[in-house]
Amino acid sequence: MTLETPEEYYARIAAATDAEGRLPVAVEEMPGWDIYPYEIASLRIKPLRPLDDEEPPRRGEDPAECWCNDPGAQLSVAGTAWSNERWRLVLAQETRVPAWLILEPLTHCDLATVPDDLAEEMGRLVVAVAAAMEELPSVGRAQLYRFGDGGAHLHLMFLGRPRRILQLRGSPLLDWEENLPLVPTDVHRANAAHVGARLRERFGGDGPSWL
């Protein structure tokens, strides 16, 4: 079996574009869902750009330059809800959903390079964070994201989808989140503290620390 190259994959996409290099809006897919936040008639996909020569370096590709060598240098967090000697659960700097928490190993690794002992613990932590987040009165579902395109250090993002606002269900939640009003800091901290307390009950570790 011959594996497809980036050039072959890109050529197939380019062949589907119009004279301006734009793909059609897939109205029967996500834009057609009742939870999609934008009106289809006003949507237009940007022209397809040329294939890049290579993947760009991410923040922390060199472990010596990663935030894990200087935790105080990570400016995108607002404090820690829970931590132990291997992991920490931090708050996003701000959020427009009831809770936005980020689980990070203190050891420098990415998802594909998590050591076996941490991988086993990570599975239990993911379950525990999701369960605790779904106990929050304002959360209907815990959503889990991992992208990894901006930073080379693993960070698993948990977003609390607001309870009973069914228009915010599913993968469009991130699009909705950018347009919702900010959650007050004290509310975000209280929700994060609840999740942190549940983790301490199961795994020990340290409690909240706000920045």
Automatic annotation (TrEMBL):
InterPro entries: HIT-like_sf (IPR036265). This is Diadenosine tetraphosphate hydrolase. It comes from the Bacteria. The lineage of its organism: Bacteria, Bacillati, Actinomycetota, Actinomycetes, Propionibacteriales.
